[in-house]
Design brief:
Strands 1, 2, 10, 11, 12, 13 and 19 form a 7-stranded mixed β-sheet that branches. Helix 1 packs parallel to helix 17 (434-453). Strand 12 (249-254) and strand 13 (257-266) form a beta hairpin. 39% of the residues lie in helices and 21% in strands. The protein is of the alpha/beta class. It starts with a strand and ends with a helix. It has helices spanning 11-22, 62-71, 102-107, 113-120, 135-143, 145-160, 169-172, 174-183, 186-203, 220-230, 270-277, 282-289, 332-335, 357-361, 364-379, 405-416, 434-453, and strands spanning 2-7, 27-31, 42-45, 48-51, 57-58, 78-79, 87-91, 94-97, 212-214, 234-236, 242-246, 249-254, 257-266, 293-302, 315-317, 328-330, 347-352, 387-399, 422-424. Bound molecules: flavin-adenine dinucleotide. Residues 7-13, 30-33, 38-40, 53-55, 57, 239-240, 267-269, 272, 276, 296, 298, 394, 397-398, 426-427, 432-434, 437 line the site of flavin-adenine dinucleotide.
Length: 457
Amino acid sequence: MHDVVVVGGGIAGLTAAWDLTQAGLDVKVIEESSQAGGNISTVGAQDYRMESGPHSFMGSAENVWRLLEELGINEDVVAAAAVSNNRYILRNGKLHALPMGAWAFLTTGLLGCGAKLSLMCEPFKRNGAREEDTAWDFFKRRFGEEAATYIMSPFISGVYAGDIRQLGALAAFPKFWNFEKDSGSMIRGAMKYMKAKRRRLKAEGKPYRKGLFSLPGGLGGITAKLAERLGPAVETGSLIENMVALPGGVEVRSGDRIWQGRAALMAVPPNRGAEILENSLPAAAAALRRIPMVPVAVLHWRCDNPAADLPQGFGFLVPRVEGVRLLGTLFPSQLFGDRAPAGSHLQASFYGGALDRAAYDMDDASLTELMRAEHEAAFGVTLKGLQVLRIVRHPYAIPQLTPEHPATVAALRLAVSEIPGLSLAGNYLTGVGIEQAVESGYVAASEVRTYLLGAQS
Ligand SMILES: Cc1cc2nc3c(=O)[nH]c(=O)nc-3n(C[C@H](O)[C@H](O)[C@H](O)COP(=O)(O)OP(=O)(O)OC[C@H]3O[C@@H](n4cnc5c(N)ncnc54)[C@H](O)[C@@H]3O)c2cc1C
């Protein structure tokens, strides 16, 4: 019997396993795919380095930095080029730079005068924090309808591939929601938070990092390093079908193979967790099924056009009201020099999400043609020598944290407590980014350590 069996070798499960092995525990990670890493993997082809999921992490991601330091690869991290500060939004068929300063804000054509005034008045608007608010209720109240439509809705497409009217403000944007609740204003709350964070980091002797980061060669370097350091503790190619409580432990099965642990940690997406717990914990499975997942297709492409034919920056997002099916496009080779061969450039375009499952379901040729037509219209140029290098389809890409999500997670945790020593990790619990996935791994590992080793661990 192992000390801990971890089901799922994405970054959440790998982080948890890493932390537990550092505490001297005997851990076994069981991963369905032939390679650990989950959504985080980088694939090379024809000298292009293509990310399957995330393309970067933020300087503010403290748990990610902690992990990189523990793995000894924090010094290898590369910052995105300064051009990453340029971000664009499509409105009326034209790309507008997202204003980053006062003058740019006053002069941008992205928003009308009424919308700018509404945004400027945010600090003085009524505090209306309600737990049942959708993201639409929240951002419309704070910023006004036009900014909610043309800035926050595309931002939500970029992070959640989600529908602003279905996501919960508290569940999906807890920091923003609490800024309003505690300070009466998102802007004032954010300023207070940043000031306090700077002060805390200074006291802890840590740097205040801004911007976007990756590793040379891509983010897959993080999960590859975790898998390398965990070595034989990671077993790939086994799909866990169920999990049951044993006297003094937990047992998981894949076909006729069995693994037993004194404790277990489940780090798989909610729909997969529901399958595993269906028979042993039906209430937990039912709660997991209430967390919707949306599909996303990622198209990695290049063309022969000169770089000047494309906008210079991080990428662009598309408000849903534009009538364009593209969610957004990133320009990875403009951010990190080693993503494309010299003289070439690499783009990554996202389709699908909560509001357009049909785009995800399109065959490769139709999706490629759609992508070509929508980019030619947005850039105002013909794409010459367009080549789609890779299409990655994530049928269950991103969890959608709805207004009911906090109650669902509470019900899930209660149901799971029936198997002593079972903890949960994954990006569906408190937030969908890498930072929250890594944090969930550390938190779950700490719960398991306390269970196995006591409060002093
Ligand atoms: C297209 C896309 C773009 C993204 N972009 C960003 C971004 O820019 N920034 C950001 O911060 N985050 C981004 N994310 C989110 C980020 O990738 C996730 O937060 C993170 O990778 C989730 O890690 P996880 O370990 O929770 O889940 P996963 O990565 O899903 O890992 C779960 C693992 O469990 C395994 N598994 C499932 N079922 C079983 C089973 N029955 N038995 C054994 N193993 C099983 C899976 O194979 C998988 O390896 C993006 C995600 C996607 C899909």
